[in-house]
Amino acid sequence: MVKVLLTGGSGFIAAHIVDILLQHGFHTVVTVRSDEKGKRIIEAHPNVPKEKLSYVIVKDVAKDGAFDDAVKSNPPFDYVLHTASPFHFNVQDPVKDFLDPAIKGTTGILRAIKEYAPTVKRVVITSSFAAIVNGKQHPKVYSEKEWNPVTWEDAMDHSQVYRGSKTFAEKAAWTFVEKEKPNFDIATINPPLVFGPIVHYLNSLESLNTSNQRLRNLIQGQMKEKIAPTGNFLWVDVRDVALAHVRAIEVPEAGRERFFVVAGFFSNKELADIVRETHPKLESKLPPADSPSDFPENIYEIDNNKSQKILGLKYRPLKQTVSDTIDSLLAVGA
């Protein structure tokens, strides 16, 4: 029996990871912030025996010792997938509200595992393209080799604080392993915008992940007059990101590696065109078919070879992802 702790179990990516872990035969324990969320996850898997899926409550991932009890288990854990990130709506102090919690949440769980869960062989951490991207000077090709050059000072700017938090948290994880030399190794998963079907028992139209909000806005007519700027032109399907996390514990060679998990490029105009094709009934909500695209003429390249070679990922096409996502949004009343 191989046992896995999955933090942030009610998150968008984590909800898909739960399904893959169970399909692959792992005994799974998820951390959640409340009893209510934990019960919803259990109820959504009625055919899974209770020893195969359970939950523990971690109310605040940034608190000192937050994970100390969660990582203690009998039988003990073999792997940890850390997707949890600090949760709040109101950033007033970038350090107190965002940077400290992101960094402490990551180093806190690594410290707890080192101290109380010596059987853990690998920890897989959800990082982000935010820790790779260089907004000031894009390289010719983006791959795992790139790091966001954001400084602590840059991160005091509210528009930079999210990218800063992801960059500093991931760097803190690599530094921890280097200095503390624990029994486990780590791998990080770095996706850009994550589209894909929502998990109905956890999500409402109000609680969507940021990437899917643009698809909701599109089919609710919020871009009918004018397509919003695309911003970041890279995307990936949530099911591919979830599989990447699980493959990163199954494949020995994935240890000590960073994975840029990215399917390709898109623009908001392309999203609108796909919805028009796959869901013609939504035509009246969409921007005109001849709306211009803001996709740049010269854009950087991407290199996702490592994720394909080591993790064996085969990325879903954008059309399938968008169509499946729209179906799932319509099912909850979009």
Automatic annotation (TrEMBL):
The keyword RNA-binding does not apply. One of its GO terms (molecular function) is oxidoreductase activity, acting on the CH-OH group of donors, NAD or NADP as acceptor. Keywords: Oxidoreductase. Belongs to the NAD(P)-dependent epimerase/dehydratase family. Dihydroflavonol-4-reductase subfamily. It comes from the Eukaryota. This is NAD-dependent epimerase/dehydratase domain-containing protein. It comes from Penicillium nalgiovense. InterPro entries: Epimerase_deHydtase, NAD(P)-bd_dom_sf, NAD(P)_dehydrat-like. Residues 4-259 form the NAD-dependent epimerase/dehydratase domain. Pfam families: Epimerase.
